[in-house]
Amino acid sequence: MDALVRMRMFAFASLMLFCALGARLWYLQGVESMRAEFQEQALTNVLEPVYEEAPRGRILDRNGRVIVDNKVVQVVTIDRTVMEDLEPVERDAMFLRLAIAVSRSGRLVKVEAIVDEFDDQSFGPYERIPVAIDVNPELLVFLGERPDEFPGVEIVKRTVRSYPYGSLAAHLLGYVGPINRSEWEQKQAQVDPEADRAKTYQLNHEIGKTGIERIFESELRGVPGTRWLEINASLRVVGEVKERYEAPIPGNDVWLSIDLDLQMLAERELANGLRSARLRGADEGDPPIVAPAGSVVMIDPRNGDLLAMASFPTYEPADFVQGITATKFSELISEENFSPILNRAIQGTYAPGSTFKLVTALAALQEGVLGDGTDALRSPDALYNDQGSYIYSRCFEESSTCRFSSPFNGSRWVDLRGALRVSSDTYFYEVGGEGFWLRPQEPDADGYLQDEGIQKWARAIGLGVDSGIQLPYERSGAVPDRAYYDRQYDAGVFAVDGSQWFAGATVNLSIGQGELLVTPLQLANTYATFGNGGRLHQPNVAVQITNYEGELVRQFSPRVLRDLDLPAEYIEPIENGLIGVTLRQGGTATRSFIDANPVFGRWPVAGKTGTAEVKSSIAQKADTSLFAAYAPVYWPGSGVAPDVEPEFAIAVVMEESGFGSASAAPVTAAILEAIATDSVPVARSLDETARYALGLVDGSVEVASP
Hints:
Blueprint: H1 2-44, E1 46-52, E2 59-60, E3 66-79, H2 80-85, H3 88-104, H4 111-119, E4 128-133, H5 138-144, E5 153-162, H6 170-173, E6 176-178, H7 181-190, E7 206-208, H8 211-215, H9 217-220, E8 225-231, E9 237-240, E10 253-256, H10 260-280, E11 294-299, E12 306-312, H11 326-333, H12 344-347, H13 357-366, E13 384-386, E14 389-391, E15 403-405, E16 412-414, H14 416-422, H15 425-436, H16 453-460, H17 482-490, H18 503-510, H19 520-531, E17 535-537, E18 542-546, E19 552-555, E20 560-563, H20 568-583, H21 599-602, E21 606-612, E22 624-631, E23 648-654, H22 664-676, E24 682-684, H23 686-693, E25 701-703
Parallel strand pairs: 2-10, 24-25
Antiparallel strand pairs: 1-8, 2-3, 3-4, 3-5, 6-7, 8-9, 10-18, 11-12, 11-23, 13-16, 14-15, 17-20, 18-19, 21-22, 22-23
Helix pairs in contact: 10-22, 13-15, 13-16, 13-20, 14-20, 15-18
């Protein structure tokens, strides 16, 4: 019995020993081998991030209507790693088949374009390379059924910019395009290394190039999403770590100060006005009326909000979505096409002509050139005999350089109010020549030479400097004086320096001619500033920013750059004259205002016509037509309260269009009439336009693009 027990115990011990040996052998051959394999894999496989561009924020008008949106499109892409495995002949043949298939689906794509995209090193080695954007969804089925013919080709979804209102406000909105290396390096330097998820850029990502898209890039830009691909030692993708995926976060929405309906109205009337000027033509012997281009700017004088900004000719921002061709871009910047891409509201500079007489009058009152003082030229109420020409009194003999003429022939007596109403050049010639030029060349309390008082107040009211609007590439214009001449001489632009600033330069300046240059935005802001009593606002183009969930991120408040605190006794004669331009007999714009529509008797407008000569060394050109105004204003019997604050300031500038009274004034009147009668048409989107054409909506709204 004991022997049997011992045998069983020995057998059990042997079995245990055998199992232990077997387990050890399995561990050494299996687990250790797997561990070594895992260790080798850990040493050779890496995680590679691939970034997904986030949807950009939307751009809306002040009432919440979306002007720039995003849409989901189908994008044909190719996998570079698959392409590199193909023989060059096979790859070229596949590219040809792909170009034919995409082109037949309705999106023209050339083989050369696909090759260029494949060779573009701005795409990472594991990013899918887009070769055609916004293709027909049916192409997805076609390619999906033929994987052997199109290896590495896949259609993916992507968001791109869309423009519900077409070209409306194109210059204001701007466009997006591929980021270049200098832009990329600049953005990389701005990335916060401690931020969990920064708004990083890749060299194939898009960035705002102009307009709102550029100036609010940091807000509109979203946070890119991140996919993590597992790459082996052979640099092949072996998988994706889906649990580490970070979804993109859309950018913030920017709400603009513009009213879409006013924007449409401004663009429509500007285009109509230029067309009418061309049809009217020039008088015999005058340069041809080409009327190729112009601008309209509207500002709220109460807070500096930009209400509309039109520039003509215009362009389609959607042309940049697919990637604009070199030929098309050349057409947009060509001077022969009148540079459609140029935002004339802030980049076009013009002599303001007689619209500048407001500034000359204000300067004359502020500096005592007009007034009751002993050094004054005369009182603003005193009459002056306008005989159609002015001869500078300090000339020793009468010559052509001493005589300054005007279009008016005859004799009329005008005070300051009347001089503004009938636009008497000789009245202001004398203010410049006998008034300012003969004052001492000694600095006043502000450091200005006393004979440069016009320049002093021109700059004070916002001319000759950037307005500060939240838009890129604004031009500052020019307010010429001796220092300006010196700078231009040193730069090799002028042949004379400040020592050559003579009486004639001041005389020409007094009526808005000479080297004086303003932008339409500056001109509108000048009239807004005078209309509100002297508060010079920094024009504001955005009112607020919200995130993609609709939560408020930031608001923009009015910004007063300076308060001129204009005395009422200086405002009254000037404003009286400006109202006379549109309401009283002899006013240079009554034909477009009170004579054309009695509503302006109940809703008075203070404005000024301008006709500016154009300097050209190539050929004689027709004058620039201008009109600037603010409204509504108090006028006895109008029904407007004495303490009314103007709600609108406007400047209309039309190139090579003739007299301001004939071209710019009617455009201004048409815009303000719609406002005064509460009949501004509602802007219609492209979709609404199409539905209207099918009879699905009524015709109570206007097409967005003129």
